[in-house]
Design goal:
The chain is α+β, with helices and mostly antiparallel strands and 214 residues long. The chain is built from four helices and seven strands; from the N terminus they run E-E-E-H-H-H-H-E-E-E-E. It folds into two domains: 117 residues, Orthogonal Bundle (Frizzled cysteine-rich domain); 62 residues. Its main location: secreted.
Amino acid sequence: MLLFMATMVFLWMGAGAMVYSAPCEPVNIPMCNSMPWNITRMPNHLHHSTQENAILAIGQYEELVDINCSPVLRFFLCAMYAPFCTLEFLHDPIKPCKSVCQRARDGCEPVLQRYNHSWPHSLACDDLPVYDRGVCISPEAIVTDLPEVIHAKVKSVSRTGCHEITTVVEVKEVFKSSISIGQGQVPLITNSSCSCPQMVPGQEVIIMCYEWRS
């Protein structure tokens, strides 16, 4: 049976107005220019109201980033100082996952301790979300390319397993596909515990997904 695994709702079409805590803005922090996102929202998770303030604060970690004490340190710092902003998903910017913080801390705290410093309290890992229990961002969770992109109208949504949701959509237009996707109704399977934007019948969405055969 041919199904499609839906991994991300990329854009809502015809949706009502959303209330934002602040608009998304381009990332202007030099340390974070290489991140896989280019929009952020202030204030950040360290309560900096502007990116100018965030640039001054994140600069204290440049030497740690340069010595590469942890391969995820730059990602973690940018997720805190220039957090990923979603246009129509959350009112607040997305936090890094607890595991990302722990990996950065485990790699870099020994370096700090050589100079009689400890891991900063402002970057504590304890209150950050766990990947399978909430919304958070990690390097492994970012997919840079998906072969199927469709414009579709939601027909029905049903839970078919503990972490599995089946969404039947009517394909309106195929923007990108490595296989033939006909017009008409197609089942989409979301096999994840992440808190994704809720879809309801009648909404039109753009969905990125990939083929799954069983």
